[in-house]
Amino acid sequence: MTTLVPPPPPPPPVTTPASPASLTSPHAVPLGAQLSRFAWPAAFVAVAAMTFGYLHDVRPKAASEVRIEHPTPTVLKDLRELARLETLSLHVEKVVDVKDRQTRLYGLVDAEDSLLFVATGEVVLGVDLGKLADDDARYDEATRTAYIHLPAPEVLSTRLDEPHSYVHARTTEMLAKRNEALESVARRDATIAFEAAAKDPKNVDRAKAQAEKQLRALGRAWGARDVVITWRPEGSTLGTML
Question: Domain range spanning residue 177?
Fold first, then answer.
C-alpha cells in the first residue's frame, strides 16, 4: 500500500519596497493637487457665512408708530382770572429712584420692582397780585410817591418737561409683581422736589428783587417819582400798610 504525501506550500511572495522613482511617476497625484480640490468649496462657504453675518447685523429695524386712536373732545371745566407777576424761572433736573419691595411665599422670599426716572422741568416764582388788599397800594400826590405792600413770592407753576423726562431703567425681579404706579410716584416726587428747590431763600430773594425792579419801572412810567415796596411775611395772607 502506497501513502501519498501532499506537496509543501509555496513560499510567500517577496515584497520589495517601492523605489523613489515610482513615487514620482507621471501617474501619481501630488498632495497639493488633492487639497486644491477642496479649496474653492471651503472659500465659498466662508464668504457665504461672512455675508450672512453682515446682513444679519445690518437688517433694518422694525418700524414703530405711536398714535392716538379716536381722540375725544376737550372739556373746559374751570376758568379763572389771574393777576400774577412772574419774576423768576428755574430749570431743574432730578433723578428719582423708586423701589417697591415685596414679599412672596409667606415672607420667605423678597422680591423687588424698581424704576429709575430722569425728570426735567421748570418752576416759575412770582407774586400773586390778586392777593392785594385795597389798602395795600396807595399814591401820595404831594410827594408823588407810590406805596405797595406785596405778598411774599410763591411758586406760581411747576411743570415736567415731558419730551426730556423719561424712564431710564425698569427692573422687575422674577417673583415680583410689576407695579404700574411707580412712574406716577416718581413724577410726583420730582414735582415736589422741584418746588422745594424753588423755595430756597436765595431764589425767593431773587424773585423779590426782580419784582421790585419791574414795579418801580412801571410806577415811574405812570408818573411816580419814587416807589416804596414792602413785603408781607411769608405765609401771611393780609398785611398792614407801613
Answer: 84-231
The model's pTM = 0.65
Grid cell, residue 59, equals 437688517
The answer to the question of residue 104 being in a domain is yes
CB 198 within 8 A of CB 87: no
The predicted structure's pLDDT at residue 240: 35
Backbone angles phi, psi at 172, to 5 degrees: -125, 115
136 Ramachandran zone, left/alpha/beta (phi>0; psi -120 to 50): alpha
Please write the tens of the pLDDT for every residue from 159-206.
Answer: 999 999 999 999 999 888 999 999 999 999 999 999 999 999 999 999
Helix (H) or strand (E) holding 167: strand 166-172
d(CA 169, CA 167): 6
**pLDDT, tens digit, 9 for 90 and up, residues 103-134:** 888 878 899 999 999 999 999 999 999 999 98
Burial of 153 (0-12, 13-18, 19+ CB in 10 A): buried
| 191 assigned to some structural domain | yes
Domain membership flag for residue 48: no
Residue 35 lies in a domain: no
Number of domains in the chain: 1
**Greater confidence, 99 or 54?**
99
